[in-house]
Structure formats: C-alpha cells, structure tokens
Specification:
By secondary structure, the protein is mostly beta strands. The protein has 3 helices and 33 strands. The protein has one domain: Maltoporin, Chain A (Beta Barrel). Helix content is about 0%, strand content about 60%. The protein has a 22-stranded antiparallel barrel.
C-alpha cells in the first residue's frame, strides 16, 4: 500500500492524523488525486517507513498492485508488471524521469539503477491504459519519477550489507538570487546472491533551474554506467537445492548513457504552457550464448503542451515528437575482431493529443480525449558467416513500414464526499511494435528478418473504481477489464513474434491503510483472470500471471525518532513461461517477509537496519521450460544518512 501522509504530533492513542492531500500529474499538469479518474499511487522515498530500500525498483515493490519479474540476476533490468501482463509486461509500462522516457526503444527494458533512490523526490504509479496522454507504450500504466528540486541542502547516504552490497551517494544544492544549482553522484554495487550475478552501477548529475515571474526553466545533464553479469537459469535439479549456483559463465552486459534534458514552463491567467526536450546517447555491450553485440542508441524528443481553461472546461493539448536511431554490430568472439552482422534502425514517432475535462457540477466532472499517432520504421541488416575469421556481411533485409493509429478515453469522476470519489472510464488502446519485435538484429534467429505482417496491438479497457479517505484510513477499489486484439507474443514453434487474435484480462485491485496513534496498518489484494480467447489456446490462462497476490504491512513510529516496519507479500502459483496450453508444472506460490528499523540518532542523522526475505525463502519469479531464475535469499543491510 503506498502512503504519502503527514501527522500531527502524537499525544495519545486517540490522536487524529491528517492525511496529506495527494497531487498527481496524470495529465502532465498537477491536479488533486481526488479529481483523477483512475487508479494512482504516490510514494515518497524520504518517509521513514521506506528505510532500508536500496533502489527505485525496491521502492516500487511497496506500491500496491506492482510486481517485478527478474531473470537477469540483478535489479538493473527487472521487468515491471501491471494489470495482468506477464511476459512483456515491462514493454507495456512507460517509465518517465522528469518527463524523459527511461525505456529503451527495443525489448531491453529499463535500467532501474540509472536513477539513484537518493535523487528521487516522489514516484507516481498510474495503473491502466494511459495512451491518450502518454502514447502507445502506456497500455498497462505509467511510472513517473520526479527528481529533487534544488534546495539549500547536502545529503550523504551510505549502505552496506549481504552479498557484497556497497552503496554510497552524495547530493548538494546551492541557491542564488536567480539560479538554483544541484548536483550529485551515486555508486551501487553487489557481488550478487548467485554466482555470476555481480553488478556495478554509477551515476552523476547536475541541474540548474531558475526563472522569474510566471516563467520557469530547468536544465539537467546526467551520465550513468552499469556493468552486470547474468547467471542464467537453473534446472529443477539445481533449484531449490542450491539456488545460488549458476550454470553459465561469461554472460554479461555493460551500458553507458549520457543525457541532457531541458524544461520550460509559463503560467498565465487561464493558460499554462510547458515543453520538454531530451537528447540521449546510450551504448550497450552484451555477451550472451556466443553472440557478442554492441548497440548504440540515440534519442531526440520534443514535447510541447498547453492547458487552457474555457468556462467549465479544462483542456490539455500537446504534441509528442521523437526520433530513435539504433546501430547494432554482432561479433562471433568477445574480442570483437570483425562483425558478422551490421544493423541500422530508425524509428520516428509523431503524435498529437487533446484531452478535456468538463465540470458538470461541483461534484461531477466528465472527461474525454483523443490521440492520433504515427510511427515510421526503417530497417537495414547485413549478415555474413559468423564462423569466418573475416566475415563479409551481405544485405539480408532492407525494409520500411509505417503504422498509424489512434486512442481515445472517456468517462466521469464523481466526488460524492470530501476526499471520496467514484470513477468510471473507458479507453481505446493502441501499442506499436518495438524495434526487435519486428526486426531480427540481435543475433537470435527469427524465421523472418523483417516481419512486415506484425500489426500494432489494439483493444479497449473499462474501469470502475472508488476511493475514500478519512482521518484515520485510506481505501481504494478498482474493477477493470482489458481486451486486446493482436497482442504481440513470441511463438517458439514459428520462431517469430506474432499477433494473437484475442486476449482478455479481468481483475480487481483493493488496498487500504489504517492509522492509529503511531501505528499504521496496510493491506492490498490483486485478483486477476488473464486468458487467451481464441484457438488453439481458447480459455487457457496467460502464463506468468498469478491469479492472486496479497500484501500487508505494520509500521510503528510515524512521528517519533524510531520507525519499525514489517512487510509480507504472497503471490499464488502461475503457469511457467511459454506454457500456452497450461499443461506443464507451475511456478509455485511464495511468501516473503521483510523488516526494517529506522532510528534518528540526532538532528540530521539517521541509521537504518533492514532484513529482506527474513525467513530465507527459496523462490523464483520467472520459470521457462523448466529453467528457474531464483530471487535473493535472506539479505541484511545497514545504512547511514547524514544531512548537512
């Protein structure tokens, strides 16, 4: 359960705690969470109850109805899952950092270590399709990470613990008469729970912000580096007998990125305008199963938008323009003597959207929106004999394609009481294929090097929800259904990504928290029925999607010098990867318990102690064809934060 609360000083068990009103930026511009027609959670990593967490991914596991799958052995490229999406779930969740997408243009996922937890001010999780505002990658939801604004402060935080954990970060700020400057650096490394699962991540950033009157601007530059090993799967004989083992050696990757982001805004009497621009270069080197690749990704993005108030209507209009370039070289040997494959891809996206909210009364608001989006992809690939000492790549594929589509949304939100709302919405969904869903350029053979027949995913989403907040509790309930036509799945029999005719996901999400004195009690439940709806797997369950998951926590010390929190999570059994027919042995259910203690030693100094997976359960979140990808066992940590 995600909480973002404040409390009056405690003077006894009957003290009334006031919940801090939440603000979300689901429409880009801030609005009260009580006015948002959908499911949203807001997390602040500075709250003592989140002590002991090491990275953004771990923070997101504290948000309700969020799951992660990890086959890489490190938190760097774990796959996030929302709304019943298993395999490929991370390809349907857009992750934004100060408005800049963190997702790679292919199926490589997100580097969660690129943004240090110490640099994060808040995280918003918007569950469900958000395609009108955010585009085709937001079929299952959006994660919006906001970094810290410049303040007169300095912070040093350090952490060490099991499996060779070494983590340190520093940030500082200086505020002048017209310009505020902030900067920082972070380092995060582990030897890994399993053999061959070590990782090493570093980042540094600097930001300048200013403005006057109604105009504000911000410029940010950051660099990040990541090196990580991959331990691979374990067969059933090796799990759970020895979950720390690895059967693979020499599989690893390295990623370096540099990025510049600009943002400018202007507030008028009835009109607000803002724009963001992103330039990024990302280099990824990976070594897997005898294929060695160097990928260079260049991104340019421009996103202007405007909000206008016209009578009772609040209108948001914007344009998203993005260009992605990816060059990939394939080598037969780690020393990269001569490439046997050479690929060049270019993807250009242009979209325009319009969203309107109409206040029919003081309590009832109606909303609607539409987005038109076009994507053009050009692909050129040459390949030679990988076993030759000097291969000569010959043109194998040269293709172009253009996809156009649109998304819409509509519904209503009724604020039937103070801090209580009921919403109903319907969305038309659209997702364009990613680069390597269409094209074969990563060294893994597909039956077609350029799949011109692969179509975008289309479908609809319906959601009915309610939330209610009072002095001592917060509760939210959502019922939803998502139907997709042409969901993109990998067919191992054809060795090709294909469009499955129909899939359906029905679910319920409930979460709540109760506050009493210094105590907080939270719980959540996610129920999901995800099925294929066409032959040959009609009515079979979608694999890697658990039907049930529960979570709960108890926290004490919301306002005092010490805070202790105990978390419990349970995930039911699920069908293993690629089990379309639902006939293989399931991935078993698992339950995990975490505990953390945060102590304020004196003003400006806090010590944290944490134990994750305290009962040392052996479990996995991913299993493919009998191959297990274990999660870490018991993990102990100690941390220190000093404000100066």
């Amino acid at each position: 359960m995600a909480t973002c609360v404040s409390a009056l000083p405690s003077h006894g068990a009957d003290t009334v705690h006031e919940l801090m009103p939440q603000v979300v930026t689901a429409m880009h511009f801030p609005l009260p969470a009580a006015s948002y027609p959908g499911s949203a959670s807001v997390l602040s990593p500075d709250l003592p109850e989140y002590a002991g967490l090491a990275d953004v991914r771990e923070l997101l596991t504290r948000a309700p109805h969020v799951r992660f799958r990890n086959s890489g052995g490190s938190p760097a490229d774990a796959q996030i899952g929302l709304r019943g999406f298993g395999e490929g779930g991370g390809d349907r969740v857009l992750v934004l950092v100060d408005g800049a997408p963190l997702n790679r243009p292919d199926m490589g996922g997100v580097n969660w270590l690129q943004v240090p937890l110490g640099a994060v001010e808040r995280v918003e999780v918007l569950r469900g399709g958000q395609g009108v505002i955010y585009g085709s990658r937001a079929v299952a939801g959006v994660v919006k990470i906001t970094t810290r604004e410049a303040r007169r402060e300095g912070v040093l935080d350090m952490m060490t613990g099991s499996h060779g954990l070494r983590r340190a970060g520093v940030r500082a700020a200086r505020e002048g008469s017209t310009v505020r400057v902030t900067g920082g650096a972070a380092y995060h490394a582990e030897d890994g729970y399993r053999e061959n699962s070590a990782f090493d991540a570093g980042s540094a950033w600097a930001s300048a912000a200013g403005g006057g009157g109604r105009t504000a601007w911000r410029l940010t530059a950051d660099v990040a580096s990541l090196a990580a090993e991959r331990p691979g799967p374990l067969v059933s004989a090796g799990f759970p007998a020895n979950p720390r083992a690895s059967i693979l050696h020499g599989q690893d990757f390295r990623e370096d990125s540099v990025q510049a982001t600009g943002f400018v805004s202007h507030s008028g009497e009835r009109t607000d305008a803002e724009a963001e621009a992103v330039l990024r270069r990302r280099v990824r080197e990976w070594n897997l199963s005898g294929v060695y690749a160097d990928n260079v990704n260049r991104t340019a993005r421009l996103a202007p938008r405007i909000r206008m108030q016209a009578g009772r209507a609040d209108i948001v209009a914007g344009i998203d323009a993005e260009r992605e370039e990816l060059d990939a070289l394939l080598f037969a040997r780690r020393e990269r003597a001569a490439p046997f494959g050479d690929a060049a891809l270019r993807r250009e996206m242009l979209a325009g959207y319009l969203h309107s909210t109409y206040a029919a009364s003081e309590a009832l608001a109606l909303f609607s929106g539409v987005r038109a989006e076009t994507v053009d992809l050009a692909f050129r690939y040459a390949e030679g004999n990988r076993f030759s000492t000097n291969p000569v790549p010959l043109l194998l594929a040269d293709g172009r394609r253009s996809d156009r589509g649109w998304a819409w949304t509509g519904g209503a939100v009724w604020q039937f009481a103070d801090q209580a709302r009921l919403w109903l919405r319907a969305d038309r969904l659209l997702r364009h294929p990613l680069m390597d869903e269409i094209a074969a350029y990563q060294g893994f053979e597909l039956s077609r090097p350029f799949n011109e027949d692969l179509s975008p995913e289309r479908g609809w989403q319906g959601e009915l929800g309610a939330s209610w907040e009072r002095n001592r509790f917060r509760m939210s309930l959502a019922l939803f259904q998502t139907d997709l036509r042409g969901e993109i799945l990998f067919d191992p029999a054809r060795s090709l990504n294909t469009n499955f005719p129909r899939t359906r996901r029905r679910g319920v999400e409930w979460d709540g928290a109760f506050f009493h004195g210094e105590w907080t009690f939270g719980a959540q439940y996610t129920g999901m029925d995800a099925r294929y709806r066409a032959a040959p797997y009609a009515d079979r369950r979608v694999y890697l999607v658990p039907p049930h998951s529960f979570g709960g926590y108890v926290s004490y010390g919301r306002t005092g010098p010490a805070n202790v929190r105990v978390d419990a999570r349970y995930v039911s059994s699920q069908f293993e990867g690629s089990d379309f027919s639902n006939t293989r042995t399931k991935l078993p259910s698992h339950a995990v318990f975490d505990a953390a203690l945060s102590i304020r030693m004196r003003e400006g100094m806090r010590v944290t102690l944490a134990v994750l997976n305290a009962l040392d359960r052996h479990y996995a979140t991913v299993k493919y064809l009998g191959g297990w990808y274990p999660e870490p066992g018991r993990t102990a940590r100690v941390g220190l934060r000093i404000d100066f």
